[in-house]
Design brief:
single chain, mainly beta, Immunoglobulin-like, 2 domains, four-stranded antiparallel β-sheet, 1 helix
Length: 142
């Protein structure tokens, strides 16, 4: 049920190419497409994590992650209040199988997740808070 609710919110970007007569000649799935252009965005490789490289997850939580899509390692960074801290993080594949679980994160504000051993595909990062709430990030592994 969790996977279904997450998948229904996922956006799929399908691009189409047409010939001059208007006939569809090609259909393609584009994960890193720029809005309205259909062209693939450049994926930036980084040597070190910088504040300008982070993508904000929710402004009220100040949770950031980089890069997406990921090749080897996903960087997570968060700033939460004292009454609501990060209790655990789970990496889940699209079959609902928990591949990795990290706990006892109450004193941390960053976490690196190794993706090198995982096959290409879509993974869910589930962030569990001390107040019992969860948030999910969809990550693509290249």
């Amino acid at each position: 049920m969790l996977g279904f609710s997450i998948l229904t919110k996922a956006q799929t970007k399908i691009g189409f190419e047409y010939d001059t007569a208007g006939n569809q000649i090609r259909r393609f799935l584009c994960v890193n497409c720029l809005p309205s252009t259909g062209k693939t965005a450049d994926v930036k490789e980084i040597d070190s994590l910088q504040e300008k490289d982070l993508q904000k997850f929710f402004s009220e939580d100040v949770i950031s992650y980089y890069p997406n899509p990921v090749k080897e390692e996903l960087y997570l960074k968060w700033q939460l209040s004292d009454d609501n801290v990060m209790s655990s993080i789970e990496v889940i594949n699209m079959n609902g199988q928990i591949l990795k679980r990290m706990s006892n994160l109450e004193q941390l504000t960053t976490q690196n997740l190794a993706f090198g051993a995982y096959s290409s595909g879509i993974y869910l990062i589930v962030l569990n808070y001390s107040n019992g709430k969860q948030k999910t990030i969809k990550i693509m592994k290249q």
